[in-house]
Amino acid sequence: QVQLVESGGGLVQPGGSLRLSCAASGFSLRYYAIGWFRQVPGKKREGISCISRDGEPYYPDSMKGRFTISRDNAKNTVYLQLNSLKPEDTAVYYCKAGTQYWGQGTQVTVSS
């Protein structure tokens, strides 16, 4: 069964960090560019970062500085390191493989 599963979300205080994981089963992530997105209820899904098959990261200007994407093809997993978290980073975070596969999301809540 082809599946993408995000994990690593949770409740964190402002200024804290989390590392999100996006693990694939049923297919190999090495053949796909992977993207991370987030969505707040009632708002449009927002792109955070993506990483090419060769490991080249990309960040839109609005996301540069606090987030780091990486991949470990041996573990069939892509990561998103979130640092210096702010309350406005609260959202459900999703990963996407190529244009086809979405995970179910993991909730990140930043609150004191």
The 3D shape can be described as globular
Mean pLDDT: 96
Task: Give the helix proportion (percent range).
Answer: under 10%
Hey, roughly how much beta strand do the residues contain? over 45%
The secondary-structure class comes to mainly beta
- How many strands appear in the DSSP assignment? 11
Terminal Cα span: 39 Å
**String of helices and strands:** EEEEEEEEEEE
- Number of helices, where a helix is a run of at least 4 consecutive DSSP H or I residues: 0
Note poorly predicted spans: none
User: Main beta sheet: strand number and arrangement?
Assistant: 7 strands, mixed
* Alpha carbon gyration radius: 13 Å
Topology:
Blueprint: E1 3-7, E2 10-12, E3 18-25, E4 34-39, E5 46-51, E6 57-58, E7 67-72, E8 77-82, E9 91-97, E10 101-102, E11 106-110
Parallel strand pairs: 2-11
Antiparallel strand pairs: 1-3, 3-8, 4-5, 4-9, 5-6, 7-8, 9-10, 9-11
Describe the structure.
- This protein has 112 residues and is mostly beta strands.
- It has strands at 3-7, 10-12, 18-25, 34-39, 46-51, 57-58, 67-72, 77-82, 91-97, 101-102, 106-110.
- The chain is globular.
In short:
The protein has strands spanning 3-7, 10-12, 18-25, 34-39, 46-51, 57-58, 67-72, 77-82, 91-97, 101-102, 106-110. Strand 5 (46-51) and strand 6 form a beta hairpin.
Question: What brief labels describe this structure?
Answer:
mainly beta; globular; 112 residues; 7-stranded mixed β-sheet
